[in-house]
Design brief:
Elements (H helix, E strand, L loop, with lengths): L9 H23 L1 H10 L9 H5 L6 H4 L6
Length: 73
């Protein structure tokens, strides 16, 4: 049985988080989000390189106008 989340060391929690980030980027964002695929490509960021919280934080957040320039979300 896995150690409960609140009993894991900080390093163990970070590893679980980073594994989840990498998995989501490679199996969900890359294949199924043309918006993020194009945005990251324009920034020169490869999806397979976003494998940690630090890498994710380095990507600028988007606003409503980024997603819908006309403002009609």
């Amino acid at each position: 049985m896995a150690t409960p989340w609140d009993r894991r060391t900080n390093a163990e929690q970070i590893k679980v988080r980073d594994d989840a980030i990498a998995r989501q980027m490679q199996t969900l964002v890359g294949p199924f989000s043309p918006f993020w695929r194009d945005r990251l490509q324009q920034m020169g960021v490869r999806i397979r390189d976003v494998t940690s919280g630090d890498a994710l934080r380095a990507i600028p957040a988007v606003g409503e106008r980024d997603v819908c320039p006309t403002g009609d979300a």
